[in-house]
Design a protein that fits this description.
about 300 residues, alpha/beta, Rossmann fold, Alpha-Beta Plaits, 2 domains, 6-stranded mixed β-sheet, 4-stranded antiparallel β-sheet, 10 helices
Length: about 300
């Protein structure tokens, strides 16, 4: 990683986005005091990660990317153990266990050995242990990895509850649509920080004229637009294409339609669309990978 610099506000859900291998987990381990960086410094909850790593860990919850609970303990025993590690009083542990079992719908697996559970259930338990002691700071590294869409929605509802109660949540993900749940974002790519801002700021400021193209010859349309100077990026989006047109073009829809018609590619529809976070990331990643060339912006 190089020149990664950002700040996170108290009580927000901060999304740290990027593909696998981009440096997300490395960054989170540094912030947890588990890994030393080669240069620079970091301050977490007002404390230096080198001098005060133990004090930082006492104030945080951490859900690692890979399963780390005790397989020979039941779900309930894992939650109770981790809460006790943070000196939560026994009566409060019972109250938190009951709350988390209900909120994360853990009833069917609460008294089963963790090693016998599926990935989705293990992830629910891992999230429960990370927040059982109600820490002011929660690190969640790819928390929805391996879970179904219903569980993913449940996770984000719980994350919103945690932030609403005043905790700061730092969450990494490579699932771009999850960015919509975050207050602020930072995007990583090949160990570099390539963008920061709110989801709305990124959609507004980083993507110019985005149009959706529908055609019976979608692959031909893709090839034609890839060779068009004014089209910055074009990619498949379901059964359609998303094409990002240079901001200097006054009529992006008209340009795309005329380009395809000149190439004898039939067009069913060309409409302006609101960028998704996937559109934003793909555009940024490709700009970052490809240097500027004559006659075309990078």
């Amino acid at each position: 990683m190089a020149d990664v610099s950002f700040s996170v506000n108290q009580g927000e859900v901060f999304g740290f986005l990027g593909p696998n291998g981009s440096g997300k987990s490395t960054t989170i381990r540094i912030l947890c005091g588990l890994l030393a960086p080669s240069a620079g410094h970091a301050v977490v909850v007002g404390l230096d990660v080198w001098r005060d790593a133990e004090r930082i860990r006492a104030q945080m919850g951490y859900m690692p990317q890979f399963f780390s609970l005790y397989g020979d303990l039941t779900g309930a025993e894992n939650i109770e153990f981790y809460a006790a590690m943070y000196s939560v009083p026994p009566p409060e542990i019972r109250r938190r266990l009951d709350y988390l079992a209900q909120r994360l719908e853990l009833g069917p697996v609460l008294h089963r050995l963790t090693r016998t559970l599926s990935t989705g259930w293990r992830q629910r338990l891992a999230l429960a242990t990370a927040i059982a002691h109600q820490p002011p700071l929660v690190f969640l590294d790819e928390p929805t990895s391996g879970v179904d869409p219903v569980t993913r929605r449940l996770f984000w509802d719980v994350i919103a509850d945690v932030a609403h109660d005043g905790a700061t949540v730092f969450v990494t993900t490579h699932v771009m649509d999850e960015a919509e749940h975050c207050t602020n974002l930072a995007m990583m790519h090949y160990g570099k920080l390539i963008a920061q801002g709110t989801p709305e700021q990124m959609r507004r400021d980083l993507i110019s004229g985005l149009v959706q193209v529908q055609s019976e010859r979608i692959w031909d349309a893709l090839q034609v637009l890839q060779g068009t100077q004014e089209v910055r990026e074009v990619a498949l989006f379901g059964e359609a294409l998303h094409a990002e047109v240079d901001a200097k073009v006054a009529d992006p829809e008209g340009l795309v339609r005329e380009t395809l018609e000149r190439a004898a590619v039939p067009v069913q529809a060309v409409t302006r669309v609101r960028p998704t976070m996937e559109d934003v990331f793909v555009s940024l990643a490709r700009r970052f990978e490809r240097p500027a060339t004559a006659g075309r912006d990078a």
